[in-house]
Amino acid sequence: MTEVTRATRGEVCVVACAEAWRGDGAILASPMGLIPSLGARLARLTFEPALLLTDGEAYLVDATGEIEGWMPYREVFTMLAAGRRHVMMGAAQIDRHGNQNISAIGDWKRPKAQLLGVRGAPGNTVNHPVSYWVPKHSPRVFVPRVDMVSGVGYDRGACELRVVVTNLAVLDFQGTAERVMRLRSVHPGVEVSEVVAATGFPLVVPDEVPVTRAPTAEELGLIRDRLDPAGARERELA
Amino acid sequence: MTPDEIAGELRDGMTIGIGGWGSRRKPMALVRAILRSPLKNLTVVSYAGPDVGLLVASGQAKRVVTGFASLDSIALEPHFRRARQAGTVELTELDEGMLHWGLLAAAHRLPFLPIRAGLGSGVLEVNPELRTVRSPYGDPFGLGEELVAVPALKLDVALVHLNRADAAGNAQYLGPDPYFDDLFCLAAERAYVSAEQIVPRLAGPPQSMLLNRAMVRGVAETPNGAHFTSCVPDYPRDEAFQARYARAAADPAEWEKFSARYLENTEAAYQEAARA
Hints:
The complex is a heterodimer.
Chain A: H1 9-20, E1 28-31, H2 34-45, E2 53-54, E3 59-61, E4 67-70, H3 73-81, E5 85-89, E6 93-94, E7 100-101, E8 104-105, E9 113-114, H4 121-127, E10 129-134, E11 160-166, E12 169-172, E13 182-186, H5 192-197, H6 217-227
Parallel strand pairs in A: 1-5, 5-10, 10-11
Antiparallel strand pairs in A: 2-3, 3-4, 6-7, 8-9, 11-12, 12-13
Helix pairs in contact in A: 1-2, 2-6
Chain B: H1 3-8, E1 15-18, H2 28-36, E2 42-46, H3 50-57, E3 61-66, H4 78-86, E4 90-93, H5 96-107, E5 112-115, H6 122-126, E6 131-134, E7 146-151, E8 155-165, E9 171-172, H7 181-186, E10 188-198, E11 218-221, H8 239-249, H9 252-263, H10 267-275
Parallel strand pairs in B: 1-2, 1-8, 2-3, 3-4, 8-10, 10-11
Antiparallel strand pairs in B: 5-7, 6-7, 8-9
Helix pairs in contact in B: 2-3, 3-4, 8-9
């Protein structure tokens, strides 16, 4: 194992993403993006060994990449509808209720920027837990109102929105009756005021905002030596 | 049949379902045959990749029914993106599970199937024709929900690409994912299969024999026919060629050159140019 030095921001984010799946047990973890993928695999290797992971195609694989089962798209849809899945998606836009947009920016009829499309976001958000990963926390992403509701927020019937992990902080929807976005923790070295300034709507900020937990020595070793030896994680951050 | 004969059986204004997923196992030789044909005003139903991109770029797809358009290793389909931003293609945007349900409804000859996906989302706002239903039964899950009634996505024609087929239309996938090719075929009035190889008799695991001949109207042997999308285990995606496609798609002058070099001649000429 390499000598353990202070965790980088990317490593803090990997662990924050891993924490999203804590307690989920034997469900399908579907991370979108590199840091969420590293997080899901880290969770599986440490505190959440029952998680099901795919190879990004149609196989279920264990933490070492060995095939343990079959998960073609039709089965993903079935697991999704059965509620036995927790996905961490990206968000081009997200509002305080957790409505997310990955479809198009501007007027949907003739968008300024066509993005991916709603994909499975509408179904995901009404069927099973959903988290989000935002590598660049900014008012362009955290908006008062999204242009097209792909994933639904709590005001539109979301099943469970677990956490929003960003390059600056972890946010959730706890602590208020209307379940709007709250600052849960700031990453080491980040000020609360930075997060507030990078958020384009009023964020619920508790009196005491904890610092996102640091990776353990074991977690750092796994991230650095096993999961991402090339260090690609830092490049996903803005 | 040849790809051109299959394209010759299609008509203007048809609704055409295309199998595969994103940039995976797409019946590209059949799509290229459509590009060479005068067909127009098509509605294309697809888990969209370069199949949709090419038919949008040629102006032959008037409407696309999909949940996304992606090249997988390149996140956004460039032609689809450009056409949407220019307002030159109509879109029915559905959750990808809704698309599955619409095909299943059509395959089962049901007018609709209920699903939770779509509730509360923009999908119901941009498709005002979509309706919801309430269960006529007691709800065993106690949720008391209104559900989206996904209308049957009835297809005139389905086009799919598989690894192996026999001359009668029994066909087999050898990769890890069947995608929804069987449903596309059953949702369609007529289905056409292209295959890497036509063999006298299918061999291998029975579960891989996805299509039977009752689902299929015609078969074409198209070696490398999914190129540049993947058709594992016969071949992976041609990433270099796909990157060339995406770069060309970003610039109308470059696209004209790409089109002249690869798309305006026969399938055999395409395959030769792509190898060069």
